[in-house]
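Subject: Interface between my chains keeps coming out wrong

I've been trying for a while to get a sensible model of this assembly. When I model each chain on its own everything looks fine, but I need the whole thing in one frame so I can look at the contacts. Pasting all components below, labels as-is. Any help appreciated, I'm running out of ideas.
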Amino acid sequence: MTEKEKEATLPAKKDFSEWYNELLQVAEIMDVRYPVKGLYVWYPFGFTIRKNVYNIIRELLDRDHMETMFPLLIPEHEFMKEAEHIKGFEDEVYWVTHGGTSPLDVKLALRPTSETAIYPMYKLWVRSHADLPLKLYQVVNTFRYETKHTRPLIRLREITSFKEAHTVHATWEEAAEQVDEAIRIYTEFYKRLAVPVLASKRPDWDKFPGADYTIAVDALMPDGKTLQVGTAHHLGDNFARTFDIKYENPAGEQVYVHQTCYGVSERSIAALISIHGDDKGLVLPPEVAPIQVVIIPIVFKDSSDVIHACEKVQQLLQDAGIRVKIDLSDDRPGAKYYRWEMKGVPLRLEIGPRDLKNGVAVLVRRDTGEKRQAPLENISHETQETLEVIQSALFEKAVADVQARIFTCSSLEDVKEKLPEGIALLPWCGDKACGLQIEEKIGAGILGIPTGQEEGHKGQCPVCGKDASVKVYVARKY
RNA sequence: GGGGCCGUAGGGUAGCCUGGACCAUCCUACUAGACUGGGGGUCUAGUGACUGGAGUUCAAAUCUCCACGGCCCCA
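Reply #2:
Try treating it as a single job with all components included. I did that and got this:
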């Protein structure tokens, strides 16, 4: 087969958009053929990745959050309570208007997010300072009527996997601390996916509708655009006043609570796939790979001892807690290599008659292609160790890539030149008018002020020329 | 928000402008069998499609309109 024909299976990664769409299909993540715009179907293989990814976020949250589940439908009068919130979402809400053939007296919204479903109940649940803090989360689907270009896992009409946490605190300061904690949790979560993220405080005009402020984490995609993959919002007492959520403090006074909410979605999986994948297909970090090791028996006529050896190895690996599969299909070995490379299996193990004679197996890393022999006698230890090496190698490589694509700039021309590659760091005076002009002049967005940045003299604002005390991330956004 | 292009087996294409028969064609995929087997195998025999609706017509994959879906450009 010629090189050209091989490429026909999957476009090169440098053609990122085509590569992404095709990969979802060929690697069996999502089937994009569902006949409604913006809705897609999880293949079982993709869904297993999802399961593994969400197990991690659950593990992290379950340390001090409780999982819950609220209804999908929100009555109109609750949804319409918070003015800012409505303004932010009204254009993208689906409404249920009929029960059978009869019009409903009260229209029901399909949640675009769940604040207005949850907070009427929080009003009932929160009575005293002893009830606080309250930290709940749920993993649910949400609906947004996107009119722009929809894209699987990234811009959806049904977000199938929205993990949203909603916390209640006694004071504004405690809530602020929870927002920081949320960002720490997300950073750890993404590290487990081997995805480096940048945290920044969103500018005021880009915060969550109804929030005091928003801190978000972004991932840098291969095409140089950033993908917002997690947000944490300080809601102040805005929703508490709207939904009348109060507690009795030790002094016996009724006071409004302070709240936060924070979420991640299947965009996490979009980032995971895009950042690590290559021209041959998926590259999955061992943590989330549905199959961590695939064993390819190299069989000739009558080579039942090869099969037996493979089964024995499979058993050993399974006992060590490794997700392992033997490919016994009657394809040629080469065809199997390509198939499992497409599926992103981190480690391939080849065993043939030649290896048996030598008492070894051939180990092939998916991320580097590196091939080496390992003795069969301590195969499970070798495998385990290699998987760990791959996991951290993927993260380190991704971190280095992001670092190399953040550019310190001082002028708008400079930013324009650098943006196709990645992210710019630019001084900004903090004035909204200047910020909007920056965005307009370079045709990109201000992500925000990097968290942890110390204020001080950072140069001149490229618009008004005044002294700037902060630098902001600027990037082309999804 | 405005404009343009497109929709043919599971996937990729030809045919459409200029309506017509025949099993519509090729690559791939899938099914069955045989030979094979250390990087996408070969042969044989099969399976499978004109997005949906309305209109024009003796006749529609082809022309017209609407819907749904996809892609691109501009703001």
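Reply #3:
Confirming on my end. The longest strand of chain A covers residues 158-169.
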